[in-house]
């Protein structure tokens, strides 16, 4: 499903890129020390380069136009830790956020410089989580997770479209990676405006 063409040289570059992406993906899964080093360097970069983005993201909130009344998106703050930790603990599905789900990890996610965490709320109830990760040199990787009761309600697509407003205003390319067998998420991502940029043996890389 890769959209890359251009002869042997481009195919060779594509193979290297695919291998590098899968390597980093696997290191992240294992929390290997090489990934932790890479992640630490990216965190330091985010503190230097993305200060303005983080400041503006802290006031970004949107009502979500869905059939689920009263749904809205807003940044998560340290005061949301109890609700956020409870939400992560309820994620018992296969594809979860790129960090552990315990309370300590929830607290770290709320204070990381390279993370822009948003909550999806219905009324006062936290029903989902949006994570925008900021990467060197200037790009974002998006992720969206909802409680199973809201998987097919359109809430995730609405949240994705909302955060795209923020990333578009910041002129940040917006990527998402989706495992090859996660068909539901691929359909939702394409509905939200992402398009497949390339695919490797493990996942699709999409950009919007």
What order do the strands of the largest sheet run in, or round the barrel if closed? 1-2-3-4-5-6-8-7
| Global geometry | globular
Please give the domain count.
1
CATH class: Alpha Beta
User: Mean pLDDT score, rounded?
Assistant: 89
Which strand-content bin applies to the residues?
Answer: 15-25%
Instruction: Name the structural class.
Output: alpha+beta
**Helix-strand topology string:** HHHEEHHEEEHEHEE
CATH topology: Aminopeptidase
CATH architecture: 3-Layer(aba) Sandwich
- Total count of strands: 8
Quick one: CATH superfamily?
Gcn5-related N-acetyltransferase (GNAT)
* Count of runs of 4 or more consecutive helical residues: 7
The percent range for helix content is 40-55%
Sheet of most strands: 8 strands, mixed
Low-confidence stretches: 1-5
Distance between the termini: 17 Å
The gyration radius over C-alpha positions equals 17 Å
Key features of this structure:
single chain; 208 residues; Aminopeptidase; 8 strands; globular; disordered N terminus
Describe the structure.
- The chain is α+β, with helices and mostly antiparallel strands.
- It has one domain (7-207): Aminopeptidase (3-Layer(aba) Sandwich), CATH 3.40.630.30.
- The protein has seven helices and eight strands, in the order H-H-H-E-E-H-H-E-E-E-H-E-H-E-E.
- It has helices spanning 7-30, 33-49, 51-57, 81-89, 103-111, 155-169, 183-191, and strands at residues 62-63, 71-75, 115-122, 125-135, 139-146, 174-179, 195-199, 203-207.
- Strands 1-2-3-4-5-6-8-7 form an eight-stranded mixed sheet, with helices on both faces.
- Strand 7 (195-199) and strand 8 form a beta hairpin.
- Helix 4 packs across helix 5 (103-111).
- Mean pLDDT is 89; it is low at 1-5.
């Amino acid at each position: 499903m890769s959209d890359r063409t251009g002869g042997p040289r481009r195919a060779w570059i594509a193979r290297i890129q695919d291998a590098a992406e899968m390597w980093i993906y696997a290191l992240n899964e294992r929390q290997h020390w090489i990934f932790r080093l890479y992640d630490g360097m990216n965190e330091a970069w985010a503190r230097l380069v993305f200060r303005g983005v983080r400041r503006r993201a802290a006031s970004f909130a949107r009502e979500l136009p869905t059939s689920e009344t009263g749904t809205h998106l807003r940044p998560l703050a340290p005061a949301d830790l109890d609700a956020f930790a409870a939400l992560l603990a309820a994620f018992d599905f296969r594809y979860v956020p790129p960090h552990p789900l315990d309370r300590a990890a929830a607290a770290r996610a709320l204070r990381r410089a390279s993370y822009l965490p948003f909550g999806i709320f219905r009324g006062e109830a936290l029903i989902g989580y949006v994570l925008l990760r900021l990467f060197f040199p200037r790009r974002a990787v998006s992720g969206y997770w909802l409680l199973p009761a809201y998987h097919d309600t359109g809430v995730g697509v609405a949240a994705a479209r909302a955060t795209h407003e923020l990333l578009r205003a910041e002129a940040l390319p917006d990527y998402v990676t989706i495992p090859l067998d996660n068909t539901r998420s691929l359909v939702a991502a394409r509905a939200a405006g992402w398009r497949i940029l390339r695919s490797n043996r493990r996942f699709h890389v999409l950009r919007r």
